[in-house]
Amino acid sequence: MRVLAALRNSDHRLTRRMAAWDSPWARQLLSPVEEAAEHTKLWWAAAVAMSVGGGWRGCKAAAAGISGMAVSELLSNGVAKKLVERRRPPKEWIPHDDVEDRPDSSSFPSGHTAAAVAFTAAVVPSWPWAGAACAVPTVLVAFERVHSGAHYPSDVAAVATIGIAAATLVRKAPASLPAAWDGHESPAGDRRVAG
Q1: pLDDT tens digit string along 20-77?
Q2: Which of 3, 99, 162, 168 is most buried by its number of CB atoms within 10 A?
Q3: What are the residue boundaries of the Phosphatidic acid phosphatase type 2/haloperoxidase domain, all occurrences included (predicted)?
Q4: What distances in angstroms separate CA 171 from CA 2, 70, 82, 108, 189, one per listed residue?
């Protein structure tokens, strides 16, 4: 119990500290990041850019990213938010107006962060440089969700696991499909004759 209480207190302290951080950099950068991440617009734009500019590798990376993001949205918003009811950080902890725009749903987990982590983690195996580029806005999205008062740091940290799990599922799924779906065998299990 002491360990849980200490973790909760640390989570609360870090929430207040991150929300109170005020600088011209934070004001100019975090608000556009939040707007871009809303409804996964940022990741759809990244997928289009990869598809257009990256040839076959870009298309493969974009498809993996979108698939990972979709799975993470299902797991975080469709499952975890329904199972865990957690209040958002108290408004009095957040010393700026961003707190007025946060949703009323459960604080756990951060769907924005889950989508960001899953997209990035799914892109990396197909196109490491693009994945590294996506990591920068991913970190900014995670930071913004706490800074705005929408989430506790633990909501963001825990959801990284969901994002990575979603990316892993997307990566492993093709290998686990039946060979018939892959075109190597017919549904009856007979080898197809090349023609």
Answers
A1: 887 777 778 888 888 888 889 999 999 999 999 999 999 999 999 999 999 999 999 8
A2: 162
A3: 64-171
A4: 39, 13, 26, 25, 25
> How far apart, in whole angstroms, are the C-alpha atoms of residue 106 and residue 84?
7
Nearest CA to 117 among 148, 147, 139, 84? 139
SS3 label, residue 191:
strand
- As a whole number of angstroms, the distance between CA 156 and CA 89 comes to 13
- Rounded CA-CA distance 147/152 in Å is 9
Of 61, 62, 71, the closest CA to residue 115 belongs to: 71
Closest CA to 47 of 117, 105, 109, 131: 131
Given the structure tokens 């995670």, which residue do they identify? 142
